[in-house]
């Protein structure tokens, strides 16, 4: 029997995404780090990983929370194809993170704070919002914004680096 996994995958509701976002927030922020968290979930609610941004502690400008979560999940699952999983991010993924997720096979992404707030907090990216970029890809991406939005905005603004 052929099952339509896509339908099931997209049927995850806001309540479920809100629960999952709590795990991305719970990844927290390490001392001296940038306040971004991410988590990866199987559609049955199993958490694969939660990770945070480690750019400063590793001197790796690519060590965004989402990229770390994708790398950790691939390692943990023992495969590089993360198709069928949801990526949760406390902030709207930047072009690098969105591309990494899509290259990893992820097609379902939820985020909390949007790009305007990320810019406001001093973490300006490349000036292209995730939906704009996703529309350029040759595959369908489900992007759900403002999940636990207020909490994610607070997390970002309360922990941002001082000017
Ligand atoms: N979404 C996201 N945006 C960022 N901007 C700077 N670092 C990050 C990060 O880890 N995640």
What does this structure look like?
The radius of gyration is 15 Å and the shape is globular. A hairpin with a 4-residue loop joins β1 and β2 (47-52). The mean pLDDT is 94. The chain has a single domain (14-158), classed as 3-Layer(aba) Sandwich (Cytidine Deaminase, domain 2), CATH 3.40.140. With 163 residues, the chain is α/β, with parallel strands linked by helices. The protein is built from eight helices and five strands. It has helices at residues 5-10, 14-26, 55-58, 65-77, 95-103, 115-120, 130-134, 149-158, and strands spanning 37-42, 47-52, 85-91, 108-113, 142-144. The termini are far apart. α4 (65-77) runs parallel beside α5 (95-103). The protein has a five-stranded mixed beta sheet with strand order 2-1-3-4-5. Bound molecules: guanine. Residues 34, 36, 53, 64-66, 89, 91-94, 97, 118, 123, 125 line the site of guanine.
Query: From the coordinates shown, what is the CATH architecture?
Result: 3-Layer(aba) Sandwich
Coarse morphology: globular
Catalogue the unreliable spans: none
Number of helices: 8
Share of residues in helices: 40-55%
**CATH fold assignment:** Cytidine Deaminase, domain 2
Organism: Allorhodopirellula heiligendammensis
Protein name: Guanine deaminase
Enzyme class: hydrolase
InterPro entries: CMP_dCMP_dom (IPR002125), Cytidine_deaminase-like (IPR016193)
Name its key features.
Cytidine Deaminase, domain 2, 5 strands, alpha/beta, globular, 163 residues, binds guanine, 5-stranded mixed beta sheet
